[in-house]
Design goal:
two-stranded parallel sheet, 171 residues, globular, mainly alpha, 10 helices, single chain
């Protein structure tokens, strides 16, 4: 969160994600007050269910192929705990990972160096041998800054090609 515009904004967002969605109203009001003219995007955070329309084609199969190849899989997500729990129940593919770091439980966000240290330490990962995949360039850059390999997710086909190129999947 330290890469946000200022410490107050970073702390507000960290506090927001640490709360159940039902408690977000006060934090969103504070964030909206800090950014006049940006009230609509700030309040869009309340619409967590609208942000995910379903599984992305080919990703569940790719997760299974990577697991079958003997590669450990971990999640690192910027979600509140209750949103992650709901998504875990709705999308069985998320249960096929070996572990998860959920920002709402940790109180830090991608792309901060602090959040990347959590899976590294918790799961004894070697960043130089660990591929971090995310759909946002800023998060991929954050991972690379602390030594992880990084891939910006576009679709399952492009990710499969990257995994094959790295030797994480047989071609």
């Amino acid at each position: 969160a330290s890469t946000l515009a200022g410490e107050e904004e970073a702390r507000t967002l960290d506090l927001l994600l640490a709360q159940p969605v039902s408690r977000w109203a006060a934090y969103l009001q504070k964030a909206a007050a800090l950014h006049p003219g940006y009230e609509a995007p700030v309040h869009a955070w309340k619409r967590q269910d609208e942000m995910i329309v379903g599984e992305i084609a080919g990703t569940a199969e790719l997760v299974d192929r990577v697991r079958d190849a003997g590669v450990a899989l971990y999640l690192l997500t910027n979600m509140p705990v209750d949103v992650f729990a709901d998504r875990l129940a709705r999308f069985p593919v998320l249960g096929r990972f070996d572990g998860a770091v959920v920002s709402g439980a940790e109180g830090v966000l991608k792309p901060s160096a602090e959040i990347f240290a959590l899976p590294r330490d918790r799961y004894q990962l070697d960043p130089a041998a660990t591929l971090f995949v995310d759909d946002l360039d800023v998060n991929v850059r954050g991972a690379r800054t602390v030594g992880f390999l990084g891939h910006r997710f576009v679709d399952a086909r492009v990710l499969r090609q990257a995994l094959e190129a790295l030797g994480l999947l047989p071609s």
